[in-house]
Amino acid sequence: MRYLINPSTNPYFNLALDEYAMKYIDCDDDFFFLWQNEPSVIIGKNQNTAEEINQKFIDDNGVKVARRVSGGGAVYHDLGNLNFTFIINVDDPSKVNYKKYVQPVIDALESMGVKAEASGRNDILVDGLKISGNAQRVANGKLMHHGTLMFDVKVEDLVDALNVDPDKITSKGVKSVRSRVTNIKEHLPEGTTLQQFWDALQYYLSNQGQDEEIVLSEEDIAKIEFEAMNRFSTWDWIYGYSPEFNLKNSRRFPGGKLEVLMDVDHGRIENIRFIGDYLGVEDVEEIENRLKGVRFHQKDVEAILDSYHIGTYFGGIKKEEILDLMFN
User: Fold this and answer.
1) Where are the alpha helices (DSSP H) in 76-217?
2) Distance CA 208, CA 217 (A)
3) Which of 176, 199, 257, 269 is most buried per CB count within 10 Å?
4) How far apart are CA 119 and CA 87, in angstroms?
């Protein structure tokens, strides 16, 4: 697979690159790039920042907070973490799945002697323990699939930086998280460095180094930097994207956590947001905008939802579950 080289550790630049690569890099071939972030919490596009982070720890330790354009849950990054992004041509977003696109990473790990497997909605496990979480977004006929790889992450900082959803983990303590995750380093020969792991993964995914590099132009880099500065690093995007509403309900379904926030005025939906760690690949804002002005009546809302392929917007969450959350 063709590839980009991205030496940046700035989370705002890297998240801007993810979106730019999906929307604007003119390449008929699928391609990938590996990257790292300095200590940061990356929240899903549809999450409420204040509910996901430990603001005091963030402030005291200089941890950056960023919002990505894909769904899913909040993750902690540091320089013990290696991330990957695949940009894939797709014809039908409704047929996109996670296992297909994590398989190259699983195969690469196996080539290094690490037995890994896809699990759950979007994870990769080693010996039943999580090493990777993944998320996706589709735009302009391209799938952007990105994921984390915990090589030597500081688990204590991960625990302190995140407000762990009590629906997912009973205890917030390090012991509880340690029982569910593992660092890849622990499953490789002693002394293996992150750079060696990076080089091996790069070599495997690029067809043993035979596939061609894609080089960003100065114009590309300038546009990515502009988006990083003027959108991805702004308060409006990171914090202001989660406005207050006067009606609120949340529930955890098999397909993820979903929270609905609504302003209803004179029997009509004035504003609505769907927040959560669900794993849709299309932007749910499209449905939110369609629902504005609609009567707050189940049949009216259902008629709008029926005009969309719900799975591409809400992952494994079903239309009936959305309606139940809104009206019961």
Assistant:
1) 98-111, 155-161, 174-178, 194-205
2) 25
3) 269
4) 22
- The DSSP secondary-structure symbol of 181 reads B
Whole-model pTM: value is: 0.83
CATH numbers and ranges of domains, the chain = 2-239 (3.30.930.10), 247-327 (3.30.390.50)
DSSP state of 214: P
Q: Is the pLDDT of residue 50 over 60?
A: yes
CA 229, distance to chain mean position in Å, is: 20
Q: pLDDT tens-digit profile of 215-274?
A: 999 999 999 999 999 999 999 999 888 666 788 899 999 999 999 999 988 889 999 999
Give burial (CB, 10 Å; 0-12/13-18/19+) of 240.
exposed
**Closest CA relative to residue 144, chosen from 202, 84, 233:** 84
Q: Are 305 and 287 in contact (CB under 8 A)?
A: yes
Give the dihedral sign, CA 151/157/159/163.
negative
N-terminal to C-terminal alpha carbon distance within the chain: 48
CB distance 139 to 70 below 8 Å: no
User: From the CA atom positions of the chain, what is the Rg in Å?
Assistant: 20
CA 201 from chain centre, in angstroms, equals 20
Taking a C-beta distance cutoff of 8 angstroms, is the pair 128, 71 a contact? no
Contacts of residue 37, Cβ cutoff 8 Å, sequence gap at least 6? 9, 10, 11, 14, 64, 77, 78, 79, 81, 83
Alpha carbon distance 198, 131 (integer Å): 15
- List, edge to edge, every strand of the sheet that includes 268-276: 247-253, 256-265, 268-276
